[in-house]
TrEMBL record:
PROSITE patterns xrefs: VOC
SUPFAM superfamilies cross-referenced by the UniProt entry: Glyoxalase/Bleomycin resistance protein/Dihydroxybiphenyl dioxygenase
Top-level taxon of origin: Bacteria
InterPro entries assigned: Glyas_Bleomycin-R_OHBP_Dase (IPR029068), Glyoxalase_6 (IPR041581), VOC_core (IPR037523)
Record protein name field: VOC domain-containing protein
Source organism of this protein record: Agrococcus carbonis
Domain VOC: 3-116
């Protein structure tokens, strides 16, 4: 049996990404911190880890993989993530009735915030 243990995000500015992703997901870093790698884990213990790997890499668009983050209150979460440094991404092919908002973190790593409110499609 396999399970997802950690999702690894490459980054340039580890400290900035550490601040963003811990606040965005309400995760905590495993201590002690390394200078080029951080493992973030859910405070409540449930869910996959997110690791930040300070290895420069070329950004490719569209990305080959991205996170779908489920939100009970999508508009509030999108606003909160923007206040942390995320930005919305315009995609002209996004359907008008889409249940997701495309965003990117401060370094341009893309993710979607999906409406998971009771009764929503997610």
């Amino acid at each position: 049996m396999l399970t997802v243990g950690s999702i690894v995000i490459r980054c340039t500015d580890l400290e900035r990404q550490l601040m963003f992703w811990t606040a965005a997901l309400d995760y905590e870093p495993r201590l002690p911190l390394e200078t080029d790698f951080a493992l973030l884990r859910p405070r409540g213990g449930a869910g996959p880890n997110v690791s930040l790997d300070a290895v420069p890499s070329e950004r490719v668009l569209p990305p080959r993989i991205h996170l779908d983050l489920y939100a009970d209150d999508q508009p509030a979460e999108v606003e909160r993530l923007e206040s942390l440094g995320a930005q919305r991404v315009h995609w002209p092919k996004r359907p008008d009735d889409a249940d997701y908002v495309i965003m990117e973190d401060p370094e341009g790593n893309r993710f979607c915030v999906v409406d998971a409110a009771p009764g929503a499609a997610a």
